[in-house]
Write a structure and sequence with these properties.
mainly alpha, 0% strand
Length: 97
């Protein structure tokens, strides 16, 4: 994927050099040529070509978040009763019958 991008950027760089070194060309024309023929189209191409990889990374990140949420929601396997009184904690209040 990146080989095509590198090759095209080389071609555009050579076009910009030819524009700048031509007797009727200007450096501003070379910069505009490089930006409009090289940088702008290649950013769009790379963005579109990376879409499946970004989608895969996002799904993996979401799956990791779901797994972490499920792991933290699992019951305590410590063998103690749930809600056991700890030292210095407030005792639960019961209703009177």
């Amino acid at each position: 994927m990146y080989l095509v991008v590198i090759a095209w950027m080389y071609v555009v760089l050579m076009m910009a050099v030819a524009e700048a070194s031509n007797t009727t060309g200007t450096v501003l024309g070379a910069i505009i040529t490089f930006l409009l023929y090289g940088v702008l189209p290649m950013t769009i191409v790379v963005y579109v070509m990376r879409t499946p990889a970004r989608r895969k990374e996002r799904k993996a990140r979401e799956a990791a978040e779901v797994a972490a949420a499920q792991a933290s929601a699992e019951p305590d396997a410590g063998g103690h009763a749930t809600g056991a009184a700890e030292a210095g904690s407030v005792a639960p209040v019961r209703e009177k019958d």
